[in-house]
Design a protein that fits this description.
This protein is mostly helical and about 160 residues long. The chain has helices spanning about 1-30, 40-50, 55-65, 70-90, 95-100, 110-130, 130-145, 150-160.
Amino acid sequence: MALRATTRLFSVQAELQKQKMTDLYRLVTGEVQFKNKAPVKDSTITSKFGDAWRTELDAWFSGEFTKKMTPEDKTVARARLDKYLARLELTRYTSSELARNFSEGAHAVAANAEKENIAQAKEFMKSAGGSAFEAHVASEAKAANWSAEQTAAFIKKVQAA
């Protein structure tokens, strides 16, 4: 009896996870929208699906979603998902940041924005001091959904620059 109940519980959890990943995939690829047409942005998806949504989506996509596809279809499906994930990645930036950092193409926006952020942070650290700098980075990191590791790595990059 307990084994059947555990098996049913596991199958329900697996079905809920499958539905969650299907919904996430459909949101990322633009097949559906959030309620009240809320914008599909990196921060919105992170708040709805959690910090590990990219890892979970990739594992589901590579496993369950593409397991019955031919290798050619898997390649096409992966390229399609990567295209939408790259578009979603750009929603992290404001239009002025995109205008400044898009000169080398969409693939270089993150690197250019990071260089610019490090330069600005270095100037801020010089003018405000180390403790004010770290407090400011911590508050901005919280607003950007950065982990403690990402925050510490950014502070180290600025201090090393």
